[in-house]
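Proteins fold reproducibly. Look at a concrete instance:
___
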Amino acid sequence: MMMNPSTIKEVVIDGHSLTIESFLAVARFGAKVSVSKEALAIMQKSRELAEKIASEKRVAYGITTGFGDFARVAVPEEMSNTLSTNLILSHCTATGDPYSEEVVRGMLLLRANALCGGVSGVRPLLVEMMAEMLNKGVHPVVPQKGSLGASGDLAPLAHMTLPMLGKGRAVFQGVEMDGAEAMEKAGIKPLDTLFCKEGLGMTNGTCAMTSVGTLAWYDTICAAQLADIIGSMTMEALTGLLNAFDERVHAVRGHKGQLKVAKNFRLLTEGSEILSNCQSDRVQDAYSLRCIPQVHGAIRDALEYVKEKIEIELNAVTDNPLIFLENEDVISGGNFHGEPMALAFDFMGIACSEIADISERRTERMVNAALSNGLTPFLTTEGGVNSGFMIVQYAAASMVSENKVLAHPASVDSIPSSANQEDMVSMGTTAARKAGWIVQNTLSVLADELLTACQAIDIRRRLNTHGQGISPVHQQIFDRVRKDIAFYEIDRELWQDIKSAETLVRNGDILEIVRNAISDFE
């Protein structure tokens, strides 16, 4: 599952074919966006039907009525445009630190793609404008807090829409400014008003939670792959036993993720002199080594489930009501409800927490002389006056403990809103945001393990109890680490080494080494 979204330079949206990889290409790596002719044509037909419904004064939620509990209040045709624009003005109530630009880019992309489905009754102009904002780098300032995850991400999406009306705030070329100024500098003419139904089309939907969650999913799958790589280096540091990774053991249980991880470890450790010389040292290892395929594998299976839900949601129409061309039906449903994503993102956060859990336990075994199979206490060369890697494990343990708090599911909570009309909500955006925090903690815990494993391998080599050689791919990774981080002979400012290790874990260098060395790594 080695994605490479940075290689995609342009994405055509049509409401049906957006993938995680193409989403990432636009949101994180700045790929250009265009709209398919077919999508523009069907959106135009949908818009014409919305106008017909309004002109005929049919009762249709959000077109000829107010919103939420105001659904019982009729709105005259001449006020329908004001109704849509007022929805944006009244709903931009979010607060807190703004989302990163990549999250906002993802929101714009997802909202545009959902409207391409042609059942939302909005003008194609709105989708073309969002594509232009993406291509020219106008990024609305969207505060993170304020969404219940139903009726979709109302407050965040209202903030996202404000610059399209020449309002709100936006970042252009790295500078935050008024939305109108950002649009002017980019050469994009703002809208004077939204038309009937367009307020709902812009704000009803799961775009904030799905953007945050998809980016977090990608970081989590990278963390899961890194956990295999770094964990296999720890195996060498601790003279781990390879029989626990024998294909036959995992075949008789049958979980796909478990089989995948065991295979990865066999590939990563192939050709290791140290491991070939230690296989008779003991009968079995502790769980944090022996059960890596079962734990890492279960995490992989969980991420496959989340991936399936994301891939559906990327191309989902999530506003309300929906307008169907074939028989002119206007149907009020609940596609804006974030429950499918809330549960998935809570599950993802729990799974990601487990990556950090077992990683910290492996780090503890390397620094604890009672558990390290012969390594020096805290990986020092002169203990006592030097504390070595003692507090590296403390830092990892702190983040693991924080993850336990963050992993409490958001989706089990609900607070009624809109005078109890919207009486059960998903909290899916909170679930996604928490998953994003968890994966950042987890990547830092893995960086601690990587730093510790390289120190432990150096110590093991100095002891020369099992030879000098590690696997060829591990040697490449080890050399890359040592290029930036020297062996820790005597105590020095360790935060600098940790920062360098975190950069290596996050910048893709390690995954790229493995991608080039082992084509079958997953």
Q: What stands out?
A: The radius of gyration is 26 Å. The chain has 20 helices and nine strands.
